[in-house]
Amino acid sequence: MQPRLMIHQKLTAFVNKYQIITPNPDNTPGALVALAQQKRFAFKEKVMFYTDEKRDKLAFTFRAEKVMDIHGRFFVEDANGKMLGMFKKEFAKSLLNSTWKMLDANGNEMLLVRESNQALAILRRFAGEIPLIGGIAELVLLFFKYHFVFVDLTTQQTVGMYHKTTLLRDNYALELDEATWNR
Prior knowledge:
Strands 1-2-3-4-5-6-7-8-9-10-11-12 form a 12-stranded antiparallel barrel. The longest helix is centred in the middle third of the chain and has 9 residues, at 118-126. The protein is globular and about 55 Å long. The chain is built from 4 helices and 12 strands. By secondary structure, the protein is mainly β.
């Protein structure tokens, strides 16, 4: 699988900022595809992705279906509001291991996306609750990179991965096989 997109996330006090970049053949950052700012603590989330740093031309959006829904379903739409697809959180599975489903524009389930390391997922959620060493455990876990795998729901084959590429900064790569990327 080859990297299809690079995602650089910058955390600030009031917004999360994202840059989505296409990689060059040598996997160095290439052209900017989209840029977004996500407000924190929004009641009904909507994130707008723009085509450049000026943020004057909309590329696409994703928005929550409902206000503060734990079974969150999000709609992905192009600049004209046409539905491109959806993704939804699998709440019960996500209690131990973050799990999402990606759907096409008609609501047909296509991909399952989940954390690839079950033990690390559980430790990240509960290590802080361990008496005396919880704080240290949480600090140590910050240095572990965590990854998500994409599983085709028709074939049950792993078709991609979303993984952190740096230790301290929030930089990620999305890798997908050719057939999944084309879908």
